[in-house]
């Protein structure tokens, strides 16, 4: 589709009447829907937007061959079914004009309102920006849309309506494009609809996407449902009669209905249970709508007296609603002929909320407390998106976090004060800590679940009471990224590590540059801001810190940077003393995030060491006799002199190989000997026996220095059955 010729949008005046169209067109349906809830003057504004959109899209066609205007009108119809306000319907009609025509946001703000222009801006793609690839462009568009949504939820409601109509007309596109859009829908749009409680739209998007992603599976399941429908009609009718009769006996006023499960939900169940369609008996679900919450529990009791409940298949979403506001009682029963029945019990207002979700605010124009709470919960979720956005500059990471947070299954846990938090299934204690507050996560050191101490990686389940203990000096561990799953936790940990690593690299780069400057007999204090500004400009970087980080990572040679600085400086102050000449970099240990102790030789204080600058990992510390050094293509400019910080209390890992008699209890004796030497065992492995009376046991122990290591070895040698102890220089 190409852009139309430029025109003056002011030509389309409010006095113009919409063109006469056949009575059965989608435009007449839009009018009928609007008349249900908008005032005449508001409908006039909607038709003004229609005229502008119609004029702007004149001559443009969809892939189906229809005039392009049919798409924005269809989107407006879907949005109008939620009874969205006039500004939203105008934005729905205009949502593509900025992107595909010469109409600007200023035109829309002038002719309609800044509010309409703001919604349209949130719906427009970033087509003026060039990205490295389509993936980055897609991720950045999602981020833009979701951040606009965080300021006005109407943006996403219209975007979902747009996506729904695109999915309804997807058959007119090329197969590869159909597949891409369908996958995008199932990854992002249908989970968002589910997260906002838009159940009907969620189910339709899921079914449409399933139809195009797995066309053969869809046809097979659809055909099987049609075939089973006739066979099960009598059973369904009997169940409905039985339920109605039982509820009347309990004097409960209720509306009972049965519904057929959609193809995508049946497919999910088949995958989850590893079964065929013939083994899925519960393709029908029943819904009981009663007058109030008390009747929900009475109806539950009545149904449990009618059919036997299946153990473990009851969920109370009345007491603890889902994060999207959904409330209902769920139970699974053994029906007649052994048929499992899924039954949902809820009130009318709960049902409205289940179908319309956050859109119930507009659809029912009610002051229902629960709908207000849903609005607040939605705003809190959107606020979390903003928090992730503020921590992350990478749109792909933002999209990754969003997908994780849209995970449909949830667990509900309690804080020490009794507040309920909803988290994705599979969340850990650390995910919970970050959900409470960023500071709680950053400083977490221990946790209790139901008064029992647990590891921070412990997976939480519904009903857990969780307490997280913190310490002021504690900080996030990079290993946490291996098990946390929520977007907030991942972004906070990554953000902290990025900042911490950057600070360490700056310090390391500064130390390396100072050494080079002193080799030129230049006092580092003599370098002024103007000299740094010129150097940063020459290197096309943003700041002095960027130069120092590049030096630490070996991307720039410290001697060359020092030489360039001397050329830039007008006059330099020479170092007054040789004692300030060529400092050695001090190694503090594992707390230096820009400094890594090589895993091949496990250097510890007391070992002679060398530092090697790796472009990706920073400064790598090796022992002088490390065999790995010989493998490097020795570049003298990448090796730096380093020394251990004296009197450090940091623990270091060392690998020991112990040849010991293969007898009962030997491992326990060695573990006790290591503990006596005040060392901790981090890992232990036993090599496969060669059939002899001796076996090699490899330990990774923690020691302070070589002296401490000697104590550990002496303690082990006191065991009579120990034949040989050696320090491993290559990790097993």
UniProtKB/TrEMBL annotation:
Location of region: Disordered: 1-20
SUPFAM superfamilies given in the database record: ACT-like, HD-domain/PDEase-like, Nucleotidyltransferase, TGS-like
Highest taxon listed in the record's lineage: Bacteria
Under Gene Ontology molecular function, one entry of this record is: GTP diphosphokinase activity
Domain ACT residue range list: 655-730
Q: Where is the HD domain?
A: 68-167
Q: Does the keyword Hydrolase apply?
A: yes
List keywords of the entry alphabetically.
Hydrolase
Which GO BP annotation is one of this protein's?
Answer: guanosine tetraphosphate metabolic process
Instruction: List residues of the TGS domain.
Output: 409-470
- Asked whether the UniProt record includes Hydrolase among its keywords, one would answer yes
Q: Which SMART domains match?
A: HDc, RelA_SpoT
Q: Which Pfam families match?
A: ACT_4, HD_4, RelA_AH_RIS, RelA_SpoT, TGS
Q: Which GO terms describe its cellular component?
A: plasma membrane
Where is there biased composition of kind Polar residues?
Answer: 1-17
NCBIfam families reported in the protein's UniProt record: spoT_relA (TIGR00691)
Q: What does this protein do?
A: In eubacteria ppGpp (guanosine 3'-diphosphate 5'-diphosphate) is a mediator of the stringent response that coordinates a variety of cellular activities in response to changes in nutritional abundance.
Record's family? Belongs to the relA/spoT family.
User: What is the protein name stated in its UniProt record?
Assistant: Metal dependent phosphohydrolase, HD region
Q: Which organism is it from?
A: Methylophilales bacterium HTCC2181
